[in-house]
TrEMBL record:
Entry protein name: tRNA N(3)-methylcytidine methyltransferase
Any one GO molecular-function label of the UniProt entry: S-adenosylmethionine-dependent methyltransferase activity
Pfam annotation, one family: Methyltransf_23
Source species taxonomy: Eukaryota, Metazoa, Ecdysozoa, Arthropoda, Hexapoda
The keyword Translocase belongs to this UniProt entry's keyword annotation: no
Signal peptide: none
Gene Ontology biological process terms from the UniProt entry: methylation
PANTHER family reported in the protein's UniProt record: METHYLTRANSFERASE-RELATED, TRNA N(3)-METHYLCYTIDINE METHYLTRANSFERASE METTL6
Superkingdom to which the source organism belongs: Eukaryota
Keywords: Methyltransferase, Transferase
Keyword Methyltransferase appears in the UniProt entry: yes
Family statement drawn from the similarity comment of this UniProt entry: Belongs to the methyltransferase superfamily. METL family.
Species: Parnassius apollo
E.C. number: 2.1.1.-
Function: S-adenosyl-L-methionine-dependent methyltransferase.
Amino acid sequence: MEMDKGEHVGNNGDRFVHRLKELTDEEKKRLESQNMRIIPKLKAAKLEKDAKRHWDIFYKRNETKFFRDRHWTTREFQELINFDPDERIVYLELGCGVGNMVFPLIEEGFSNFYFYACDFSPRAVEFVKRNKLYDENRMKAFCADLTTDDLFENVTENSVDIASLIFVLSSIDPTHWSHVATVAYKALKPGGMLLFRDYGRYDMAQLRFKAGHKISENFYMRQDGTRSYYFTEEELLKLFMEAGFEIIMNTYVQRRTVNFKEGIDVPRIFVQGKYRKPLEGKSVTTCER
């Protein structure tokens, strides 16, 4: 497939593009079949009410073994390494899980970083605190619900240099997204950067859902009761601009997940963004291409 202007291929083969995947007829039929049985509103409301419990059960069952450590972050987000090594950097991981992003950064050095790590699940936060790399002199882990303002019981507004929201927003009901974006904006210093990655529209995982798992358009319930949304870049552009951010990068990432030993070769679609809190009040769209 030819690349359009402004699109490129990363060193690892990932394709950064600004267009939706074109669905085959079979894929269109799969999406249509999901509408045969939609989750009732009462059950959807219960999923929202029990969201914390479902994530706590998830971590009870999987402990620290489910998600791989994210060693790709310094490759994708150069903002993590473009600092004077003597400059103190405050980093906030919004939705830290069991520390799959923050602990690889600690292993790589980052001795000038102070880390805040928060999660919805008390069990996940406990796993972070039990990690052998957890050092209270360099890091603080705590529970926070990003759909409220309780983050600011532990983090001062306008104090964070870099925040990340990696595979987190998709698990939150769309009615709360604007509040989550506002929380991130308030936490960052002027000039601070929010790093973002999540599931993209028509990702393989979305196409695999059967009838009975769809909550609303592009929002689904997994077997374990956790939820997942699949974004377009236009949705994210609107969301973060309305929160006040400058749009530095906002794109789809197409990649293949390959495991030759297990015979797996799966196309994945993610959305990736970099959103900056402006030094002055007015935001300007300045997308990287």
